[in-house]
Amino acid sequence: MSDAAFGAVEGNSQSAAFKAQGRIAALVRQRAEAKAWSEAASEKEGIAFTPLSPAIGAEVSGVHLSEPLDEARKAVLYDGLLEHKVLFFRDQDITTDQHIAFARRFGTLEKHPFAAVKEGYPEVIPITHDAENPGRENAWHSDVTWRKEPSLGSILRLLEVPETGGDTLFADMYAAYDGLSDEVKEKIEGRVAIHDFAVFRERLKKRGASEAEIEAFNREYPRVEHPIVRTHPDTGRRGLYVNVAFTEAIRDMDDLEAQPLLRHLYGQAAIPEYQCRFRWRRNSVAFWDNRCTQHYAAADYWPRRRVAERVTIEGDAPY
Ligand SMILES: [Fe+2]
Fold it and tell me: At 207, phi and psi to the nearest 5?
């Protein structure tokens, strides 16, 4: 790949870096002037939202996940999710059944075909890391985009938290799209990317899955195509929808052109102005909208232990 081609997707030259810097600053000014970012705390139906950053994330108080949630309060929470993209709750000493019941209020629960589940709870994925099993969710991604209908969102509770480290970072993929140069926006307009569960296929192989088992998974979860720019079904806003964990290629585009372009797009989630970073405590809960965010679990706490449980809500086909 020549320097000129890298330049075309704003690679690593100093002038490209300055251009990107200027564009991000302009986007921040624009959002602030349009009040498009929710920087102010708000409260409705006794539920308060305190933003973590101008772009994304709010800490929620006035609701305990163990309580039955009436329609009005559920609507406030869902509207809060649409606005802030990820909600955080503290001190949620809830049972697994309460975790599931809360998630069910927002849709049908998803069963992950590759992840081990909690005994007796097929909808609950335990995520445990320690000295023998270091954290590995440390790549920017949105969940299960190798599905035809990737999840609406996930609700993750931390049961054990290391003294320090183990934060999760979230990125606003609307901002990631809005901040692209016009040239890149034009390049990806109407384009479709191919997603695959390659990461899990490798793990299955390592765990000793047979060729026939892998083939069966390949048939059940063939590579899928999703638009590079996804329209959120509830907000109508457009966000960048490719990720380094599961996106493989761009349909009808040669890899020589597509791969540098994809790398550039993946890199947008890593821009701090589009992010928030959540410091977990025991019984903290995060509820993210998987349709307009990406996340990255910092794997900086080895050899300490971090234990989480995730319940995931089914989504619909991206368009
Ligand atoms: Fe994830």
Answer: -80, 0
